[in-house]
Amino acid sequence: MAVKLTVLGCSGSFPGPGAACSGYLVQSPHATIVVDLGSGTLANLQRHIDLADLDAIVLSHAHPDHWVDLAGLDVAYRYAQGREAVPVYGTAGTRQRAEHLLGHLKPTFAWQDLDDTSHISIGDLTLDFSATDHYVETFAVLMTADGVRLAYSADTGPGWSFAEFGVPIDLALCEATFLAEREGEGILHLSARQAGSMARDAGVDRLVLTHLEPRTDPARSRAEGSAAFGREVSVAAEHAVFVV
Questions:
Q1: What are the domain boundaries of the chain?
Q2: Which residues fall within 8 angstroms of residue 128, CB to CB, at 6 or more apart?
């Protein structure tokens, strides 16, 4: 059994030239979900699945680079496909912003507010959540299917760790917004070095760095993250696929 992660977008905080912000397609044998839906991700999602095949949407927090394409998905479902009550899981703050932008959530979306005790089943996927170290309420997510564990840090500063999930993680997708030279600036994001070190200490098996600010050099991030992790890490790129 395998779980497949497809990167729909990985620019941090704002999109780089021709790029999309945070969004990830996760597919198990009996579930298809997206985790975050930042600007540009809806267009990329349609290169991989029909929107009718999407089972649920998980939104980590209220910053627009992680959810704003929900507006376009609403239009697609309301006027092109006629879908209603599509499950969305997100923070209360994200819901409030989405309601303000869209003017409604129902009938298209059936929204459920998250907290860090939430435990959700979608097909054969189970999802558990952990509050991270960020400016607004933000949840990392652990996705499990038949013993395969995939984790996503969402946005976080160094006050949070994958160790909060308390189980071995086969593949971790971790934000690495900047390089170590910017540590100490009080920014609630991680450097590639911090991401690598945190994942190593948490016992992560494979590490993928994501959410790089467009000014951050991916080659330097890979080198810095690999040195801290103790073995080679990957850097997310649009349409890259990782199978666990």
A1: 4-243
A2: 118, 119, 141, 142, 144, 165
> For every one of its 244 residues, what pLDDT tens digit does the chain have, with 9 covering 90 and above?
689 999 999 999 999 999 999 999 999 999 999 999 999 999 999 999 999 999 999 999 999 999 999 999 999 999 999 999 999 999 999 999 999 999 999 999 999 999 999 999 999 999 999 999 999 999 999 999 999 999 999 999 999 999 999 989 999 999 999 999 999 999 999 999 999 999 999 999 999 999 999 999 999 999 999 999 999 999 999 999 999 9
What gap in Å lies between CA 30 and CA 54, rounded to an integer? Answer: 11
Adjacent-strand bridge partners of 162:
none
Amino acid identity for residue 181 in this structure: E
Q: Which amino acid is at 73?
A: L
* Topology at the third CATH level for domain 4-243: Metallo-beta-lactamase; Chain A (3.60.15)
